[in-house]
């Protein structure tokens, strides 16, 4: 077996597993964050469920450390009260990012399993652990049962050849991979990385790469633990650990040889993490702000690189540089090493540990028209505010903050560039009533949205994540998807959405499913779905199916046509011309969950 199969087989009490097999997986460590945590608690209480093992269960308050938003503060306190009652550990607002805490506190170890309401829980691949971001119902089920159902993914092997250039960072490696594979070529796969250049990567570098598996559409990017990482995890867990690695004859769906010597420093252009180009091609692009941190690049090595570039220099006039360490331990280490003083002397703003701009609840957001260069993992439009975000390595971000424009450490000008700030108007939300009927055969008007990689921020923006009442969610549906800002106003109960590849890419937020339930959308058809989104929809009894574009082309669908869909038989009929085609029917698991009214029904 390969790495993912070995881990899942062990945690399903099976001698072996194979791709597409649905198994019940025991979860060693189960976490919920501050925005998702409130909904997890609500799901447990509403369904009369108890926590199976509080010792394996934690809250992590990393999205809004400090509760600067009233709704976050309310949700955090709600979780604290639940934790006190049931003896659950809380890593509160002073602790930092939950996934990093799990590694650094020994809550996970090579070969273990971890779930969280954080879509970047697959960061655990850095130490050879299976980590998965899941929605609120999944996490509630894991807390109540100790296990969750999971479909064994297909595995892909990447063999790295050649020697990495000295100016190519771990962030550059993953951005180069995104330029090769995009957001959906590895969709739903477990990806293993091998080669001398990979073996030499530190824990911090592996974390950077693994944290962007979600942006590649992959289930996880898995590393075989090095002796140094085994030793680190033994120190954190206080026990002897066995090395887990793939068998020599392990089978893979795909094997790719990649020449790492051809990799160059990269940036992701605003809008998509996979829209990548060389730093050289965008040099001298003016910036308003810079951000160093997130679960991708908030480790101590990232902070040391940043300090080495900022030392005895100043951030460009009117440019804002924000620095957020991943955890409080890293923050304290940076203080001890004198890094914090270097940042402050350079004119940077340093915050307490946490997720920062990615979560919209802490330092790191940008304003309308603002151009930011960031070490984060996502730059979806609207994700880190209303501006435009380039993704890059800490070295490039630090150098750019000094220059006032995008540049590299070896090309920082003696005089910084100036810029002009832009502003844009906000859109007003609209209100739509909910509709709850979910029959197995539905009829409705078609919305054809022929776009790949529609992410969860486009479907349901993170600024609405504190909403827990499903009736309020529908009005915000697609208000961050270009051309569909008025979708909620124009949609009707019973409407059907037909879209393209990788629908629901990105975050683990359940609201990106529930907003369609709120509007009464009767069904969604897509060529493929983001892995977490697919689970969330199935678990919420929201009808989603997949189709082959060539198969349904024959029924000559046009936007606004009325269609009938038999979800159990897998048939779509264009009621305008009575032509029919086959689509992929509900799976047995999907039917079972659907008929129960949801995973927790």
Helix percentage range: 25-40%
In DSSP terms (H or I, runs of 4 or more residues), the helix count works out at 20
Shape: globular
Mean pLDDT: 92
CATH topology of the largest domain: Aconitase, domain 3
Q: What is the tally of beta strands?
A: 25
Beta-strand residue fraction: 15-25%
**Largest sheet, spatial ordering of strands:** 22-21-20-19-23-24-25
What's the N-to-C terminus distance? 35 Å
* Structural domain tally: 3
CATH architecture of the largest domain: 2-Layer Sandwich
Return Rg in Å.
23 Å
Outline of the structure:
With 601 residues, this protein is an alpha/beta fold.
Report what the structure shows:
The chain is an alpha/beta fold. It has 3 domains: 3-262, Aconitase, domain 3, CATH 3.30.499; 266-411, Aconitase, domain 3, CATH 3.30.499; 441-595, Aconitase, domain 4 (Alpha-Beta Barrel), CATH 3.20.19.10. 28% of the residues lie in helices and 18% in strands. A 7-stranded mixed beta sheet has the order 22-21-20-19-23-24-25. Strands 4-3-2-5-6 form a 5-stranded parallel beta sheet, sandwiched between helices. A 5-stranded parallel beta sheet has the order 16-15-14-17-18, covered by helices on one side. Helix 2 packs across helix 5 and helix 11 (300-310) packs across helix 13. The radius of gyration is 23 Å and the shape is globular. The two termini are 35 Å apart. Residues 424-428 and 430-437 have low confidence and may be disordered.
